[in-house]
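Comment thread on ticket #2218

A.B. wrote:
> Attaching the input chain for the structure job we discussed in standup.
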Amino acid sequence: MAELLLRTPLCDWHAAHGGRMVPFGGWTMPVQYSSVVDEHTATRSAAGLFDISHMGRIFFRGPHAGRFLDELVTAEVATLETGRVRYALVTNESGGVLDDVLVYRLSPEDEAEYLVVVNAANRTKILNWVAARLAGSDAVAFEDRTEALGMIALQGPRSLALLQPLAAIALDTIPYYHAARATLAGTRALVSRTGYTGEDGVELIVPTGETRRVWEAVVAAGQSAGLKPCGLGARDTLRLEAGMPLYGHELDEQTNPLEAGLGFAVELGKPIFVGQPAIARAKQEGLRKRRVGLELEGKRIAREGYAVLHGGRNVGRVTSGTFGPTVGKCIAMAYVPPELARLDTRLAVDIRGQAAAARVVRLPFYKRPR
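C.D. wrote:
> Ran it. Output below, let me know if you need it in another format.
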């Protein structure tokens, strides 16, 4: 039986405007409109507009919501100020990553409302994980509002300027990794200064029925600024240049956050969270592997799953690889033993039976000008 794919509120718009639609995370999504390179370049130089309505949006409410989330994720979120957004991981008892998420603090303690944005392919898994831990308790209410809300990402150096005429809030007053409720193109929206491209920009959450109207208003506002609608292809090359992990590639249930280089999102000193003892033990005993950036010589691309070699011996695997349009080089992320993770370590990648020279470089590959 064919998989029944979910459709975002913008699905018809994508198809009508040349989006090449593909299955992704249980949804039908545009992989590109013109070309991945064109869309990537537009985002780096001007602005790119992405449909990210496939991402899961789960709301938590109740006097103990913050305490519950502190036990669920690796970062401390109960003490977040209203409007703050924090990156965190959901881990299992063995310390493996179930998902990487964004936690939004939406209201103060007396109301205690949070939003957790999860990866599309992991939504059901995280909902089941949450439900199992809240079984028999009415202290925390949670609601999956993924299909009731649309989500749009506007990214790139011209994003805020082109969006400002549509917004009833000074967008530059929203600090990085903060969110605010505001009217946008005549619609109530949650505007967050977040993204997954390495560029400045915002992510917008609006009611499903208003998503297309807001999207079209942003497209119109961005025409003279060089904005392009973008698909999953450019989103992937942008995040890879920015050194950002992708679940199912750099993150999975066999990899702990410290191995993935995400120690900044793990607060081992806070009260207990699921997976904390295992992660602390792994840190004390020594990690099995490390995520590294690789820069390859030549023009051959290291694809996911390719073997990483040292002295002709298989020592790791590539998790993501591409040609970076901005950096102008073939780049990849991979897992290797800790002793081979030092900068400038010479390695190779087995590309269809041939060893392509590579070296370990600092992540991210690209960092936007400030």
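A.B. wrote:
> Thanks. Noting for the ticket: The helical segments are 11-16, 36-45, 65-72, 123-134, 159-163, 208-222, 232-241, 276-285.
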